[in-house]
Amino acid sequence: MLDALLLPLSGPLWPREALRPYSKTQPLLVVVVGLLVATVASAAWLIPFMLATIQTSGVPVEEGLAWRIVVLNIGAFAPVGALASATVMAGLLWTFPVFGGFETEWRTCFLIAAVTQGVEIFRRLLVAIVLWARELTGAPGSAVEVRTGFDAVLALAGDLPDVVMLVGRHFGPFEVWSVAIATAGLMVLQRLPLRTAAITASVTVVVIQGTVALFELLVR
Q: Residue 142: what pLDDT?
């Protein structure tokens, strides 16, 4: 029970060992609860910086309203977003292998997606650590911005087209990590060959991140 509850945290660190016990049974409800609790807990570390973002937005917002916005983001938008992302990823992991002649189970794909979503928890924790380190040490830099994609490296190259920086923002080490976890999950739980699992995981992450990047580009 406890192992399944912590699977969104243990799975990203050692996916093969963590997922192997669930090759026959998938306690989805327990894993989802663990994902939602960990998501809310990791987002809570960002409360002061969310408030700072609202206060520096240029729009006058009362302190009480600012707190309600933050609570809504942490208690509703963050967990619902994690669940929605896992659902979309599960659908893609379930669909793409069909083109290679392989069959997959949606329930198992959802378990893999929920575990892969744990990467976002670690991303959020990294952001929180960097922001708190800046706050405590007075280090220079934006008070609320931390680059976690390849845009952090691209920024060193000087002025680059906005579209390049946009793509770099949505692809980075954490996306590579997600591909690795999803690949391991498909191999362990769905018995897919390495090549098929890697292609499926890669295409899934590219489609998800590419769609988000395209939407952001269109609404600018």
A: 52
